[in-house]
Write a structure and sequence with these properties.
single chain; 348 residues; alpha+beta; seven-stranded antiparallel β-sheet; three-stranded antiparallel β-sheet; 13 helices; 51% helix; elongated
Length: 348
Amino acid sequence: MIRALSEKKNEKSSLSSFQTLIVSTATRVGMGNLVGVVAAISAGGAGAVFWMWLTALIGSSTAFIEATLAQIYNEKDPLYGGYRGGPAYYIHRYFEEKTGKNMLRELVTTLMDCRRTGGNYLFGKGRFVLRGFTADPAFELSKCAIIKDSNTTTTGTAHGLFIKRYNCRGLWRTLKRTLQLPRSYECLAAAIRLQKAGIATPAVFLASRYYLITEVLPEDAVFLDKEPELTSGVVSVLAKMHDAGIYHGDVNLRNIYFLNGQYGFIDLDSARIFPKGISKSLRRQELARLISSYAREYSSRQEPLSESILDEFTNQVTACYRERTGINLLDSKLNERIQYLIRRVRRR
């Protein structure tokens, strides 16, 4: 062994046996295990040993969890035949299962939708911008009248623009915003699909990871939470939206407006696109939310909504939906969902 270590290197550019041993030892033992320990004890005294033990316990625990998750959620490589895994894979898979969305598919769908607009949207530096739009979202928001400021979003209006900022207050929300597909991208994709289907929605000017800018609706736009009597007419538009493969996610009367004889939708943060069609259960959820929202607004303006009036309105809505789509959603599951949403709203 000693003779092998004392051998000289054959070429100037190569490493000798002794140099190879030193490099190998350094990579395995590590500078932190030698110099780091000496420096810590010298600077912090004997108490530094306890903190090194604690750090080692936490570090080994996280390393064990990371390695275990990498083995549980590894994927077979279709090209080389082996397996691949790690934090990037199981974090991506977690958010897909949590949100029920395929992030890569959603991004590709958004890009393709923007491409179909005839080049009206430009993509660069992580944001979609309507051609010719040059306003800076952060500057515009600092100058506008704030409508809402919460842990999730900050919204305001200025110069005919509606500006929404997706806040990152807290570690978990920051991590979620960083890893998830930006909500503004999904809003843009849903807005383009709605416009192609002939359904009104405010035009999107900019969509980035943290900002969304749309046009402000005219003052004569009537929101259905102010005029709940207009609710029955929106059912055919909702059915048209579902047939186009668009799931709104929050069909509340305050998110539906009536303008120039046409119904429209806002607040597409929860919207999802299903190219192969929307399932019956998701259609039922949307219809139940619409009916429960009507019941809440009706009760806030008049006497509490009786069961007979609610049943009559439910039958009317489902009949219109069935006539438009051929799908019958009037069943016990729909009624249970409506009652659940009404009770949940009342508790608030």
